[in-house]
Amino acid sequence: MISMAMLIEVDSAYWHLSKDDRRLLFYRYAESMDFDEIATAMEIGSADAARMRHKRAIKRIINKIGGFKPYRDEDSEPVEGEESNSAGSDHSNSPNS
């Protein structure tokens, strides 16, 4: 469940994007346009260019809200096979082992 605080942070980050980034995200999520349609509407040039611009806009939002941090409940049980990453940990899956 997304908290109200998170929604406020995302909204604030969205409004700090450039007008073109906001328009691209609006087309993608509110209008459900594909990247070809977005490229045409924004006169970007290609679907790949629209896709890359979209990816960069999403990264800007993530960075504005503090970066990517996977959710981990402090009270949850550790996942089987998961170990802490300490300096002395065994890297048995390393190609040099």
Summarize the structure in words.
- This protein is mostly helical.
- The chain contains 4 helices and no strands.
- The longest helix is centred in the middle third of the chain and has 18 residues.
- The chain is elongated, with a radius of gyration of 19 Å.
- It starts with a helix and ends in a 33-residue tail after the last helix.
Summarize the structure.
With 97 residues, this protein is mainly α. The chain has helices spanning 4-15, 19-30, 35-42, 47-64.
Distance between the termini: 42 Å
Helix content: 40-55%
The proportion of strand residues reads: under 5%
Shape: elongated
Structural class: mainly alpha
Number of helices, where a helix is a run of at least 4 consecutive DSSP H or I residues: 4
What integer is the average pLDDT? 81
SSE arrangement, N to C: HHHH
- Which spans of ≥5 residues are poorly predicted at pLDDT below 50? 86-94
Count of DSSP E strands?
0
- How many strands, which pairing sense, and closed or not: the largest β-sheet? none
Radius of gyration: 19 Å
Q: Which characteristics define this entry?
A:
4 helices; 52% helix; 97 residues; mainly alpha
Please specify the SSE layout and strand pairing.
Blueprint: H1 4-15, H2 19-30, H3 35-42, H4 47-64
